[in-house]
Each structure stands twice: as structure tokens, then as C-alpha cells.
Design brief:
- By secondary structure, the chain is of the alpha/beta class.
- It has 2 domains: 227 residues, Spore Coat Polysaccharide Biosynthesis Protein SpsA, Chain A (Alpha-Beta Complex); 121 residues.
- The chain is 52% helix and 10% strand.
- It contains 12 helices and 7 strands.
- It has a 7-stranded mixed beta sheet, sandwiched between helices.
- Helix 2 links the parallel strand 2 and strand 3.
- Helix 11 packs antiparallel against helix 12.
- The protein binds guanosine-5'-diphosphate-alpha-D-mannose and manganese (II) ion.
- The site of manganese (II) ion has 5 residues, from loops.
Length: 367
């Protein structure tokens, strides 16, 4: 039990939206996992219509370790986490989902690691030995998740095999230090913390499994992924859309015209079949785009000689992945009843942001 003459050792921050049925089981699980540790749990609820906050308060009546912050007229996972963590006076703060998908028995392991003083941050990872992400629903979710990981890995100052993890722990004073630099948008608070730190954080990765969600439903949707792209862009260019990006997007638009012209020509004059014709048109358009970007967008760091060929191959690989993401996202949106124009446009925007971000770091690496 928490000693009233001391702040708790650990505050567990639980962002929640429509998690009413998960509240009581979650607190019982925390109680079992954190035996021997002075802990408290802070639910941050965005006025869930299902009465999540009322459920937390009901339990708080008989358990003083349970607190609730209810925000009205606001939504957002990252900002909820920030507010919860900043309301704490404990030595350490942990962030965990309120839907029982994260394995709370990892908490004492994370605390142990931080208490040695050897680490600034403990992250539950699905991608280190012993972890797994069986609970990630669906093929597209896997693709989005893996794509996001690859994308963010390219920008990270530290090695983090699961930068999308929503389950981590750090000393509360460190959180306070980093708070001013946080973007607070969207989902990826962990990434935001790591990118906001002036010195690379010493990270301890703790293997963890990601359970299936039993009650309620996931709130991670495509808007969240778009915000994620925005967060990365924001961190890369410090708030303004750089000229380079605009040039890159214009070249991309030109490439679409080249693609269509070649495809039309091949269809008219050859009988190769759509698949082959489409593949040829795609590759020609990519080479065209690469050349144009190399001479316009990246005029100041133009690749030449062997570096030119290496860059071209990399560019084709990067854009190939971008195309897959574009098609996948547009498909998902279209299946969830978006108009074909909106689905296509959002897919294309995500594709171009991906291509730009990846080729800026991998192909035309600033030297
Ligand atoms: N306060 C608040 N406001 N909480 C929210 C909001 C919001 O707008 N949106 C989601 N949450 C809460 C949920 O209630 C849940 O407790 C937690 O944030 C995670 O949301 P889920 O909707 O369950 O996310 P998920 O299972 O799809 O995503 C998981 O995997 C991601 C990586 O793939 C989470 O662990 C994420 O944190 C993780 O990034
Ligand atoms: Mn979840």
C-alpha cells in the first residue's frame, strides 16, 4: 500500500477512450503485478461517452491509488499522456494502454532497469527476442506498423526496435525536462520523447507480448497515421514545409504523367499484357523521377558516377515501398466507404511523404 508520507514510486499513466469494461480488470492486474511497489494509476479520459471516467471514480472511492483526469472537449492520445505524466509527483512514470493489450507484468522489470541508473528510458518491445505482436489485427495493420517502424528508424538518434510502442517508463523529472519540446499530436508519444531529447537517451528494451484486444475497439486509424507522418515531417524540417519537399512533390506529379503516357503507348503499340506494361511504365517513371530529382530537387548534392547508380537503385526500392503503402492505404480507406477521390488522394499524399522522407535520408543523404 502507498505510504501517505511519501509520493508513490511509480505513477502508471493510462490514456483511455471508451474503455469502461477494461478498467476494473486492469486495476486488478496492476495490483497483482506491482505488489511491493508504492504505485498509483492515473487514468486520463477524454470524456468517453461509455462512462469510462465514472467507472474509474467508482473504483477510486475505495482505492486511493486510483485517480482520474477527465478532459472535456479534447481528444488525443499523446496529449492525454503528457497531461497524466505532468500530474504525477512519483519518481517514475509509466505509460500503458487501458485495454489490457500490454503485459503489465513487464512493469517491475522496467522499474528495476531504471533504478540501476544505467538507463533513461525502458521500452516494452515486440521486436526484441521474446517479444511478439500477435495481437496486431490484420495484414494492413502489420504493414502500416512495419512501415512506420522502418520510417522512424531512419530518423532515430537511438536504436529502438519498437518505436511505435505505447508501453514505456522513464524517471518523472526527465519527462518534465522533455515536456516543453513535445509535439503532443497524434499517437506517437514515445517517438516524440526520444526525438525531443537533446542528448540520446539510454534505452533499455524489455521484450513484451502484445495481447489481443478483448473488449472495446482500437482507435488507431488512418488519420492517426497521417498525423504520424506530420510529426516526422515536423521534426525533420522544424515546422515549415521545405522547398525541397514541394519540388519533390511536383516532380512526382510529373512522373505520373510520364507513367500514363508510357502505359498508353505500350498498350497501343504492343501486346505485352497489362501487368508487364504497367511494370515497365512504373520503372521508367521512377527512373525519370530519380533523374529529375537528382538534377532539380537535389541540385546542390547531385549524385554522380557509381553513387548515381547506387542512388537510383535505392530510389526505386524506396518508391516501390511507397507505392505499396499508397495502394494499401487507399484500398483500406475505399473499403471503409471513403469516396474514391479522397481515398486515392490520401494514399498518394502518404506515398509522396514517404518517398520524400526516405529518399532524403537514404538516397541524397546530406553530407
Ligand atoms: N485519452 C485518450 N484520448 N485516450 C485514447 C485516445 C484519445 O483520443 N485514443 C486512444 N486512446 C487510448 C485507448 O483507449 C487505449 O487505452 C490506448 O489509448 C491505445 O489505443 P488503442 O486504440 O487500443 O491502440 P491500438 O491497440 O490500436 O495501438 C497500440 O499499438 C500501437 C502500435 O501499433 C497501442 O499500444 C499504441 O500505443 C501503439 O502505438
Ligand atoms: Mn489497443
Amino acid at each position: 500500500m502507498t505510504d501517505p508520507s511519501h509520493a508513490p514510486t511509480l505513477s502508471v499513466i493510462v490514456p483511455c477512450y471508451n474503455e469502461r469494461p477494461n478498467v476494473a480488470p486492469m486495476i486488478a492486474k496492476l495490483d497483482a503485478a506491482l505488489a511491493g511497489i508504492a504505485w498509483e494509476v492515473i487514468y486520463v479520459d477524454d470524456d468517453s461517452p461509455d462512462g469510462t471516467a465514472a467507472e474509474v471514480r467508482r473504483i477510486a472511492q475505495t482505492d486511493a491509488r486510483v485517480r482520474c483526469i477527465r478532459r472535456v472537449g479534447r481528444r488525443g492520445l499523446a496529449s492525454a499522456v503528457i497531461e497524466g505524466a505532468l500530474s504525477s509527483s512519483a519518481a517514475f512514470v509509466a505509460v500503458i494502454d487501458g485495454d489490457l493489450q500490454h503485459d503489465e507484468t513487464r512493469l517491475p522489470v522496467m522499474l528495476e532497469a531504471l533504478r540501476t541508473g544505467d538507463y533513461d528510458l525502458a521500452v516494452a518491445s515486440r521486436h526484441v527476442e521474446g517479444g511478439d505482436n500477435a495481437g496486431l489485427a490484420g495484414r494492413w495493420r502489420h504493414m502500416l506498423s512495419d512501415g512506420g517502424i522502418a520510417l522512424s528508424q531512419a530518423f532515430l538518434p537511438v536504436k529502438l526496435t519498437d518505436p511505435m510502442s505505447g508501453f514505456f517508463m522513464l524517471p518523472r523529472p526527465l519527462f518534465e525536462e522533455l515536456a516543453h519540446g513535445l509535439n503532443g499530436q497524434g499517437f506517437k508519444i514515445l517517438l516524440d520523447l526520444v526525438l525531443s531529447s537533446p542528448a540520446p537517451l539510454r534505452v533499455k528494451e524489455v521484450p513484451a507480448t502484445f495481447r489481443e484486444r478483448v473488449a472495446g475497439e482500437s482507435k488507431l486509424d488512418l488519420l492517426v497515421m497521417i498525423q504520424f507522418g506530420g510529426l516526422l515531417l515536423d521534426k525533420i524540417c522544424g515546422g515549415v514545409l521545405p522547398l525541397r519537399f514541394i519540388s519533390f512533390a511536383l516532380v512526382g506529379g510529373f512522373g505520373v504523367l510520364v507513367h500514363l503516357a508510357i502505359l498508353g503507348g505500350l498498350r497501343h503499340f504492343t501486346g505485352l499484357g497489362f501487368e508487364v506494361e504497367q511494370t515497365i511504365a512504373t520503372i521508367v517513371a521512377m527512373v525519370f523521377n530519380f533523374k529529375l530529382n537528382n538534377s532539380i530537387t537535389y541540385r546542390d548534392q547531385r549524385l554522380r558516377g557509381p553513387r548515381l547508380w547506387r542512388g537510383m537503385v535505392l530510389f526505386i526500392v524506396v518508391c516501390g515501398v511507397g507505392a505499396i503503402a499508397n495502394i494499401g492505404i487507399a484500398n483500406t480507406l475505399y473499403e471503409s466507404h471513403a469516396t474514391w477521390t479522397a481515398a486515392g488522394a490520401i494514399g498518394a499524399v502518404i506515398g509522396v511523404v514517404w518517398n520524400y522522407a526516405m529518399s532524403a535520408t537514404l538516397v541524397w543523404r546530406a553530407r
